[in-house]
Amino acid sequence: MRMDMTTLRSIRVCLRTMLLAACVSGMSNGWAVLAAEETVLPYDVKAEPVFQELTPAFCWFHPRVAPLPGYGKEGQPAVVMTIQKHLSASDHYSGLYFLRTDDLGKTWTRPTEIPELAWQPGENNETIAVCDVTPGWHAPSGKLLAIGIKLRYSPKGDQLLDKPRSHECAYATYDSKTQKWTKWKMLAMPETDGRFFLVSPGCVQWLVNADGTLLIPTYFRGPTGNDYTTTVLHCSFDGVELKYLKHGDELATKGGRGFVEPSLALYRGTYYLTLRNDAAAYVTTSQDGLYFQPVKKWTFDDGQDLGSYNTQAHWLVHSHGLFLTYTRRGANNDHIARNRAPIFVAQVDPEKLQVLRKTERALLPERGVMLGNFGAAAITPTESWVTDAEYILSGKPHPKGADGTTWLGRVQWSRPNQLVK
Known about the structure:
By secondary structure, the chain is mostly beta strands. Helix content is 8%, strand content 42%. 42% of the residues are buried.
């Protein structure tokens, strides 16, 4: 049977189309497999001491770091660590100290007290202090900005909450060249006799927008009640003065002190907010950093509860993955208060808002005592750091090894983080 040229050409075109479709299908499947494999970003962890001090008078508490791009050796970032002393009374803190490294943590200065940020006298023999500080680099102004909570202490070291603005947002800046700090300033807020009677941006991760404005997660409450509400403050900052512009959704829950110590991250165009409650840890998302979806409890990707509660969690953001740092139950650590050691890091499924269990690694060790409030920050394209200190006031080492060490946990990425210059 003979075929004319038109029919023959049609058959050839059809065969080529089928072959191409098969190839494309194979390639697509291959890319799908490759993409699935690349959804998990491999990383290594390494814990090392920054310094060690053991005394019954105090322990070092909530160390947090921020890079100073280009101010270290050979064009690398210098890194500043803010830290303060936890004294014998509960939540009684000294003025602020800082350390600095210019060689990416190979050597550090000793903790240096900052006179401008020391205790100040208040009325009726009160002490005015600032605690729960998080430093960060504000690139538009070229300033290191430190944000924390101003508070009032009685002569015995008890926190006083009977007046408006007993807790309020405090901030100061650091000059990278002169290594000088400014004095604390307070962020002016509306409704300080009502809704914003107490404002506490403590132990949070805040963000700088492209236009130089800030998104500062905070928790607040009125003059009565025990439960706090969380919101995100949108503020301007010109390198000198921080100004309130507006705030977003007010996220609340009954019991467990409400929602406190929120931390905010931006990953591939979506904002992620993690929240502390006495009973569990929660998470939510937003498209603008101000208005959020309903909150949900943190779980592993097998549906089991994460087991984190009554303590903070923080983010590590990489161009190829979103990561959470946290503490939790279920790690042979029931002897630790609130199960607050070790500190873990794991990758997050950004769509399902679940922690990928197989990616979890213990980053900072459990040595018989709890770890305090901690910090997490990107430092170079190849490393992010998590910092914490051992809570021990006995003056003697713990039998399991705790000796007042301040820790640096290095998260070493298998691929460069394109979000860090």
